């Protein structure tokens, strides 16, 4: 008995020692992204956020580590190193990567020696120059000025894309051999995003579709409904299918304004508009457990109750790396579009994110319009417009898209599922709780509201007209009395001095 007690105590002590010993994090997601900085104030600022959105569109779940962290990479199968500074990798990290059996893509000026040797890589530095980057399909944008980068001069393996550095010559944008890939440059909001996608697709063996969609964001119950109707009509007449990112309604759903909002969205849906629900606006970083889940379900049910099939979700990137937003906010959806961050307000930040089954990459419309060569993007994209301020902006957008190959997003298979509702699309048809949705363009609520508005405006006009007449008479009478008193006073004054 004593022996058993002693053995139990020994096991307990061993367990205590093991449990209290510092342990490294396990990297078991699809891709590990390892970065040195966010490149604030440099040419590369924003490239980390772009990379994370790109990987989501490529269907990859991501775990992020900074240089000072020490994760266990033994289980990682795919690794991306993003180097924005000139500093080389530490010996510890170099050793980890060299020993790893993962596929590795390295982005930056100073790749480690083991990688350069495997790729037989040689480069030359260029400074203060203009470069133009092309993808494998020949997609190119405007030339861009860079302070410093490298040109690949010699390598082993497959070249992907092209970097034209004017007087400094042309070179491959990136190279790939076996499990390794390298590129010296990656920036946000230019064609290096898509040249890098080609490189990542090659080294990680990713297959993608290459559809183009039109996305209009910032639609909510407070926008100009007449302009929204005009938008739907204009795009429909020009044969341009489109996606609307519509803000949710989770309070005051029985108000006439909420019903009007639902009615205009139903009209948009009837005009080849696909509805996606935008996430609620975040004002402070706190959300009690289940609160956001309830808001999402109520909002989806409000749409479903008005025959609006919200087929996915739109949100800023940081939602995907938040413990509450990325779970409760995204749980019902298999389709989502991650937008660039505007204002980050976390509940609790986390270093790993999920991936949607379908997630077109959001591309700013002004960048899209500068690209050339048939706009052959290597992944599904959503050409993104903020809701138009006026008809001039609307017409310009419609004219720009009219000759492009814009696809109808509802022809993808989408599914949204909550405790109350199941919303789906199949071959272009919409279903809510297994019932086919009738695409009805009758704006009954808005028509009723307009009639009431006209009657109210008429009655107010009569009231204010009466007020104007009344005050005009009062003012004229007052001026007349003042005039009489002035004359009477003047005569009294003159009589006084004439005596």
TrEMBL record:
Report the domain of life of the source organism.
Answer: Bacteria
Q: Signal peptide: which range, if any?
A: 1-27
Please name the Pfam families in this protein's record: DUF2334
Sorted alphabetically, which keywords does the UniProt record give? Membrane, Signal, Transmembrane, Transmembrane helix
In Swiss-Prot or TrEMBL terms, this protein is called: Lin0532 protein
Checking InterPro entries in the record gives:
DUF2334
Transmembrane annotation, as ranges:
470-493
